[in-house]
Amino acid sequence: MTTRVEQALPPRRRDLAPILLVPLVALAALPLVGSLSTWVTLTLAGLAMGMIIFIIASGLTLVFGLMDVLNFGHGAFISIGAYTAAVLAPSLSGLIRADSLALNLIALLALIALAMAVTGVLGYAFERIIIMPVYRQHLKQILVTIGGLIVAEQIIIAVFGPVLIVLPLPTAFRGSLVFGDIAIERYRLIAVVVGLVIFAAMVLILDRTRIGLLIRAGVENGEMVEALGYHIRRLFAGVFIAGSALAGLGGVMWGFYREALTPGMGMDVMVLVFIVVVIGGLGSVGGCFIGSLLVAVVANYTGFLAPKLALGSNILLMALILLWRSRGLYPVAKR
Amino acid sequence: MSERAPLLTLNGVNTHIGPYHILQGVDLEVPRGALTMLLGRNGAGKTTTLRTIMGLWHASAGSVRFDGADITAWATPDIARAGIAYVPENMGIFADLTVRENLLLAARSGPIDAARLRWIFGLFPALEKFWLLAAGVLSGGQKQMLSIARAIIEPRKLFLIDEPTKGLAPAIIANMIAAFHELKKSSDTTILVVEQNFLFAKSLGDAVAVMDNGRVVHAGAMTALVADRDLQQRLLGLSLDRNQ
Ligand SMILES: Nc1ncnc2c1ncn2[C@@H]1O[C@H](COP(=O)(O)OP(=O)(O)OP(=O)(O)O)[C@@H](O)[C@H]1O
Ligand SMILES: [Mg+2]
After folding, report:
1. Which of A25, A17, A23, A20 is nearest to A301 (CA)?
2. SS3 for B58?
3. Is ipTM beyond 0.95?
4. Model-level pTM?
5. Phi and psi for B221 in degrees, rounded to 5?
6. Which whole-number Å values give the CA distances from A254 to A53, A241, B16, B52, in the listed order?
7. Whose CA is nearest to atom 24 of ligand 1?
């Protein structure tokens, strides 16, 4: 029956243009940067950072798409994830300091699991206590979720002081793999792998499971999902918990990336995260993935080529993308 | 059949949407095993009535009883799970999902029953043809078919269908009529259809209710309304001449 379809209509149109953006930008940057080894470093750093932003932003875009909830509090879970890792790291110092990739990986995975558990549980509480009462009231959502973010930041300052906390990388993740004059930082490679794994898992869940179908359907038309007999509030709570846990994971990855934590780190990243969510198309995981990589590599290239432009480059990028596609790279059909 | 209690009963239902008082005491009985047509001019409150039954709006006064239970204050998913399938006026298709995925979600109790799917493909061949395409690329009539297919993919006690013929070509309407006749044949199917097209309505309806200004102003057998031109004129006004 499918062969007839393909004759009757063009096959389901795969929209490839956005996918080509990152490779095109990278290729265009190569002659500008000049040196291959610098370009590789910049590109890999951009991809690693993009993956971390994606991990953080993916939950936010689904939360927005599913329930129109603008959650500025998402940033709190980034910080909480990172600080959870910093608090627990000393008790795993044996594993972290060991000169063994396997033991180091176990330590990293353990810290990630614990941070995700903490942020997931807190996410559940946040959803019940802070989000639920302001459901469908956008202005109040902005106010209370920003409030939640500030409170979380202040609690962190109260507990840890306004100082920088170091989060040393496990031994085997330090340093670079060197190929000729090209150096590839190990941890960036790990960040890219973790990001790809999360992206693949999300795509599989969204495309292949009933829960994933429900999430995609709910992003489009939550009312109809309810009329088919599914409680969208429960679905949303689940997505919110998963999104908070992913922000916690992103926080751990980001903390190790910088090897230093500050109470405001979550808020700092949130600016990028919101830009990514808008660029990708609200509610689109695929768009969010491409948007994250794009924002990060562009920031790295401009930071190198024209440091004075670096601050504005993300806003400029967002403006350009929205001029091209006013509802983001992959707009989600809405009711 | 008329001896049995109605499957669905609305008693003095009032619905407010924001500041507007839309339904102003709707009384409606939907008999079991029959197809009831809900008619009325634009803005009479037909869609609001269906949405209130589904719990998408909540009645501020009055009650909705379904199959012995008072569902007035129930949440929409629980109402759906009690056995009511809903085809909204805007069809509610998930455009980014394929035809197949739309139907998978509608089949709550597990994998789609193969025989039932064949029956649906018989009613609406386009769905088989476009099985793996994003539902968003379907034409308006095909979306309407998908929306109805989604409602009937599993047996339900009651089907609420809002203007199935809206914007459809006559040939497709004929198809749709055939589909409903088919659906009516299975014994325990109760259907409430909102309709503007009187031709469609009279060829299918067993019972009829006419709404105006947020109330049901006439209820009875379809045959009685079809026989009484004065009543038609009074209840349905000019729109009738066009359709007859
Ligand atoms: N969301 C809403 N907000 C405000 N008023 C509404 C809303 N939905 C419906 N109404 C009003 O309620 C009244 C009844 O609308 P409803 O959609 O139930 O009519 P209808 O009988 O289905 O009409 P039609 O035949 O045109 O579909 C109309 O006056 C309409 O303007
Ligand atoms: Mg209507």
Report:
1. A25
2. coil
3. no
4. 0.88
5. -80, 145
6. 9, 20, 50, 49
7. B42
